Structures are given as structure tokens and as C-alpha cells.
Amino acid sequence: MDIISLRQSAEASLPQMLDWLRRMVEINSFTTNTEGVNQLGALTAECFAELGFRSESVPSDDPTHGSHLFLSRGPSDKKPIVLVTHLDTVFPPEEEVQNDFRWLPEGNRIYGPGTVDIKGGTTLIWLMLRLLRESSPDLFESTHWMIAANSAEEVIGADFARKTTARCPQGAHAVLVFEGGPHEKDGWHLVTARKGRAEYRITSHGRAAHAGSNHALGINAVVELSRILPAVSALTNPQKNLTLNLASMHGGTVLNRVPHEAVAELEMRAFEPAALAEAGEALESFTQRTAAGAEINVECIGRTQAWPGGRDTDALYRAWEKAATQMGISTVAEQRGGLSDANYLCTLGPTIDGLGPSGGNAHCSERSADGSKLPEYVEKDSFVTKAVLNVLAVNVIAAQQV
């Protein structure tokens, strides 16, 4: 494929793509703003309709969330190439107003809610598909494409994975996730693995008593819980890429009462499922009756499977690596500790993440006068480079199914 022609085509389509992005950013789509999320879903369906995509809006299992969006075109008897994005952001409407956080171009940066996470990724999918339709029309028409947009990715809406899987009964030819892909000095970063997560609650049951007249009769649940927390925190193991974060602790009621209960909550993350399982067993061993008589209980309250990468992901990455070489740029395979829909959808087929544009400060809406705080932004010039890179690589993997 002629890279110069692809770049020229991408540059020509960039103004229209940026107009779609502006319209999307101007819609508040905070996860629980169901009206906004659904409005964005309708606009996204309109955006892709000109490329021949049929839309399906599917209600979330959680009534406080908007509807998931599935867009598809091409022969349904083939395994789809699933292009993954999401509709929600982390910014409530009042926060956007308070911080005057809105669409704001400044040089090469465009600030605004969702510009990089992930409305910029959604519009990059549009730009990539438009280039594929122009440069490889037969391949574009003969490929089964599915765009899957989660309405609640920022809170990891697990039902989205079930609904996506139900629409891929044969699995997927590839799962391509358009979370942001940073551009650093060492190259364009692509994500080839993500940590899994296990969440735990530790509860200490003591004995209440009057703090003044019967202090000795009480068993202080806060104190007893605090005794074990240093050992719990010490389960972090950098050699195994295992992190344990004690995120919250609370207990007791009023100052004149020996607290009868205290609770701590934490999460653990690791790339290897075995490392999480081993740490979970160690954590559960803290279930005990303390010397003072408190009952310590440990329970797992949630899990997210790891996406450890592997041979299939490595093969996908090589397609992008080869495409980068053709363009005279370089790529970097990155393992990320953060979660994405790749954690849930990687079982459908070979998966790669970080295919979206470059930007920064995701999840931040603040701007300080001295410039030490800047809100979320996307780098405008990254769209063309990333679109061409994705087109070259996707052209190769789509052709493998023809």
C-alpha cells in the first residue's frame, strides 16, 4: 500500500473526523448519565452509518447505565474483527461546568472530556475504516466488522463482555481495542498484556463497650485490624509484578464507644493468574481469632481476569511492528497495570490494545494557573500517523481471512 497516498487521504478526512470528535466531546457521557450516554450512542451510530454499519442498541443490565452499542457490516458468516471502544467518561456534568472543561484546541493539543479516553479512539476507528474503504475496497467489503462500544467501561461493566460474546458465537478473528496509545521517544506504544485484579474485604469483629466505664471489657476492632495490615501490605511482590493496594479503612461509631467492627478494602493486581491466586491464598490465611479475641474475616468481593498476552497477541503485534517499519517509525510492546475491555474480551480471539490516538492526563479535568495541572487532551497530529499504522496492519490481518 502506498503510504504517501494513505497519509494524504487521512489528512483530507481529518477535518471531518475532528468535527465528529467535537460533537462527541460536547455530549456529557458520565457513566451514570444515561441520557448523555445514549445520546452519544445515537451520534456514534450516525457517524458510522455512512460507512454502511447497522446499529444495535442493547440495554445494560444495570439500569443506572446507558445502553451498549454494537455496529456491524459485512458477511456475518465470518468471524468478525471486533473494534472495541466505550461511550462513557469519568466526568460528571457539574465537574465539567465547574472546571470549564470543554472542547478546546490549543496548538497540537485538543483538550476536552473523552478526547483521548476514548472518544478520540472511536473517531480514529472511523478514520481507519474510511481509509480502508478507499484503499482496499474489496477487502473492506469482504470483512465482517463489528464495533463494540461499552456504555460502562469506566466502572468495568461486566455484562458488556457477555453481550459482545453472544454476538460472536464463533469467536473473533481479532479483538482490537482503541484505548489511547502514547507516543514516547522510544516509539508508539501498543498494549500486549494487562494485569488481572482481585478485590478483598477484611473485616474485624470486636466487642463494643463503654469507653470510659468498661473500656477493659471491650475488644477494639480498629486496633486489632490495624495489627495485621502491615503484613497484608507486605504481600506486594515486584519480582512477580504483583501489587497490593490497601485502599480504605473505616471502623467504629462514636468516641465514647470501643469500636466493635472495622473494615479494610484492597485490590491486588498481577499479569499472571497464578501470582494472584497465590497472593489470595496468603491473604485468606489472615482469617483468624486474634489473641485479644477479635474475629478477622477475609473475603474476595470481585475478580477481573488477567490478559497475559501470549503467542496470538505477539503475532498481532508483529503485524503492527512491520507496518511501523514500512512507515519509518517504531513501536513498543507495553504491559499495562490498568484494566480495559481487553481483560474481558481477550478470550474471543487474538487481542491487541492501545490502538487509539496519543494524548495525556486522562481522567483529569483540572487546569491550574501555573500550568502544573492540565486536563485531558489528545494530540491532533497522532490521528493521521496512527490511522495509517492501523490501516497497514489491519489490512494484513483482514486479508488472512479472505
UniProtKB/TrEMBL annotation:
InterPro entries per UniProt: Bact_exopeptidase_dim_dom, Peptidase_M20, Peptidase_M20_dimer, Peptidase_M20A
Keywords associated with the record: Carboxypeptidase, Hydrolase, Metal-binding, Protease
Gene3D superfamilies referenced in this protein's UniProt entry, alphabetically: 3.30.70.360, Zn peptidases
This protein's record includes keyword Heme: no
Pfam family, one: Peptidase_M20
Domain Peptidase M20 dimerisation: 192-283
GO molecular function: carboxypeptidase activity; metal ion binding
Protein name: Carboxypeptidase
